[in-house]
Amino acid sequence: MVTSPNPLVSVCVPTYNGARFLQQCLDSALGQSWRDLEVLVVDDGSGDESVAIARDYARRDPRVRVHVNPQNLGLVENWNRCVTLARGRWIKFLFQDDYLEPTCLSRMLEAASDDTALVAVRRDIVFEPGTPASVRRMYEPFAGWASLRGFFGPGPRIGADAFAAQVVRRPRLNFIGEPTAMMIHRSAFERFGAFNHDFAVLADWEYAARLAIHTGLAYVDETLAAFRVHASSASQTRGASRRFRVWVLDGLIMEHELANAPLFEPARRAAARLHPPVDLHFRLVGAAREARRLARGYAADRQRPDPRAIADWEDAVRRYPLLTAVPRGYRAARLAVSVRRARWAVLRRIERVALLARGAVTARPS
To answer: Most Cβ neighbours (<10 Å): which of 156, 166, 180, 308?
Structure first.
């Protein structure tokens, strides 16, 4: 088979100790009905058979390229390395545990137009045997209401303004899906930069949001990809070992970017248009103070202590000093909110007393 030096699509497979499911992953990439592609495997220092498996595929199919990083870059930086090495006009990530349906690329390319930078599909969530019930419950919303279809309907286009409004309302909720469910035009990385390695698990969501609030996206409402959940997946192992970093700080950094990053200016405009409007700087103050409190709590937890919680909080503040900034007018605004709440509570109390008195008069015998 002759392979193009400049294929339309680069299927990027970042690997790290992914031998268990890698063959199914690569078979699904090479079995696509769209043939003008390369499959780029970028290994980040695996200690298992991942590289051997990938090189065996490369010997048998010239569309497969294998790159082994000379040193471990870490999860997100390995994604960026994939983008740097890819030759295609479109970047289609496919994670080592996941797989694609045969028509995935064809349907995504059909949905793309000249001004499209991001295409997403519906994905199936595959739970491996032994996945705890608590983990299954955690993912259940993403197959229903917490999805692109749940928020925007069946597509095929989702506008930038509508998307930005949902990001403001739910900044920590990845309702697009994992990179396996996305395809990104190369020009997006030139315009909007690389993945942010300060995120532990929300780097894909932050990048997709950073992009879609400017350009919107195309959505194929068909189940064309599968995201596998199992106990040793990257998201599960990170969540178990660094609870504060994953479950608190990632969301806080997202709040910071919405409030301050220049590329998130469309989100700030969307926040100002909501009813009532949302001041993202004010919201960040509350989120940061709650995160600082939680860092102490995670560190002092006797049953499941997170010994790095305080250090992770301090490192985040060094990287993002605006986390501890108090914007002008914040204290006055907080006082006004407190006064409104106190007034509401007094009115409710008066209303309850009046209802009780009215009931007592009605029940009094004549």
So the answer is: 180
Kind of pairing between the strands at 99-100 and 217-229: antiparallel
pLDDT class for 40, splitting at 50, 70, 90?
very high
By the 8 A CB rule, do 85 and 41 touch?
A: no
In the three-class reduction of DSSP (H, G, I as helix; E, B as strand; rest coil), residue 66 is classed as strand
9-239 carries CATH number 3.40.190.150: no
Nearest-10 Cα torsion for 158, 159, 162, 166: 50
What is the spatial distance between Cα 194 and Cα 79, in angstroms, rounded to a whole number?
9
Q: What's the rounded Cα separation, in Å, for the pair 100 and 266? A: 32
Computed over every residue of the chain, the mean pLDDT equals: 92
Residue 330 pLDDT: 74
Which residue, 209, 144, 124, is CA-closest to 174?
A: 209
What residues have CB less than 8 Å from 362, skipping those under 6 apart?
A: none
